[in-house]
Amino acid sequence: MELVFAFIIGSSIGSFLNVCIYRLVEKKSLIFPGSFCPECKKNIPAWSNIPLLGFILLRGKCYKCSANISFRYPLVELLAGVFTVFSFLHFGLSISFVVYSVFIYFLIVIAFIDIQTHLIYNKVLIVLLIFGLFSQILFTFIPWDEALLGLATGGLTMWLISILGKWMFKKESLGMGDVKLAAVAGFFTGWLNVLIALYLGFILAFIAITLHNKFKKIKITGYIPLGPFLAGGLIVFLFWGDEISKFYITLVT
């Protein structure tokens, strides 16, 4: 029953994350007006705004104008619900559960905005860092030296990678948004953990590009948003980092 409740809470928060993704990109208020259809601008009634279930009941269409509802909406709600369950299983009912669940919600918003715009917004990262600082001051969810060293290590590592990429490819290969994301993420995870998580993120990006180029006629040759893969690496390490580390040690020893 606890897991069901965690999923319901997470998917409900996912509904708000969808609002954040859409309105941040469109530069609209996150509070006013209430939920509305992006096509016809009509208000969405409460019954059709139920996470996941509303999309199913409406068969993926606006009840007013019948415009297709982006599949992103139920996907974000599902991801938020599932990751909230994973967070509860991993941390239990604790401060860490709250802090890292919120951290994941921010990563979801960052990832989907980056997919859409190829940008990682400074204001989102600033709010996330402020949340982390206040949480750290109030609860100290990670040792202070680990948090500050993680902030420096994550940002410096990604900055050096961006410099190396520019030297190798003779053009910008990594946005500063990715550098800032790595720095903020390091504050939440610590220096060693952020390095491993970033490494996983690059592996996920490599796998995705390889599979796309293998099965799609049009190969990826230009810029791809790295934010979703960095977010994926951070989330994977957050929940399964210990298992991955142990598996890696068995391979090299």
Overview of this structure, please?
The protein is mostly helical and 253 residues long. 72% of the residues lie in helices and 0% in strands. The model has no long low-confidence stretch (mean pLDDT 90). α7 crosses α9. It starts with a helix and ends with a helix. The longest helix is centred in the middle third of the chain and has 26 residues. It contains 9 helices and no strands. The radius of gyration is 19 Å and the shape is globular.
Can you tag this structure with a few keywords?
mainly alpha, globular, 253 residues
Major sheet details? none
Taking the alpha carbons of the first and last residues, their distance comes to 42 Å
Percentage of β-strand residues:
under 5%
How many helices does DSSP assign? 9
Query: Which segments are poorly predicted (pLDDT under 50) over 5 or more consecutive residues?
Result: none
Give the ordered list of helices and strands.
Answer: HHHHHHHHH
Which percent range fits the helix content? over 70%
Structural class: mainly alpha
Care to give the gist of this entry?
The protein is mainly α. It has 9 helices and no strands. The termini are far apart.
